Amino acid sequence: MRLLIDTHVLLWAALADPRLRGQTRDDFVDPNNSLVVSVATMWEISIKYALGKLPLPVPPRDFFAREIATRAYEVLDIQRPHAERQAELPFPVDGHRDPFARLLVTQAIVEGIPLLSGDRRLNAYTAYGLVIRP
Hints:
Layout: E1 2-5, H1 7-14, H2 22-29, E2 34-38, H3 39-50, H4 60-71, E3 74-76, H5 80-85, H6 99-111, E4 115-116, E5 132-133
């Protein structure tokens, strides 16, 4: 199964964070799954690194090259349908306004693939076709 990886899941796996556990870990390491990382995730990580909010062992360019090569991630570019679908998503009270999370949600919906995430606030988007693998 193809799975779009949420930013925090990618970071947990890359940095051997113990928060990668349970079903999320099982889905992440299952060899039958094809892991997809969005350019939006790379963008988010790069911004947080540049702002000093996210320490990485190497600069983002090297970090992404290593992770993509090591884990054989499929890279998902941001496409016009992903951007256009954003306008159709509400800002639910129990959701959040993080533009990167919203872009990952729309990419998962448009591409028809589950989002591997531990962010329970994203459950607000399941009514719009989002499938979350917690």
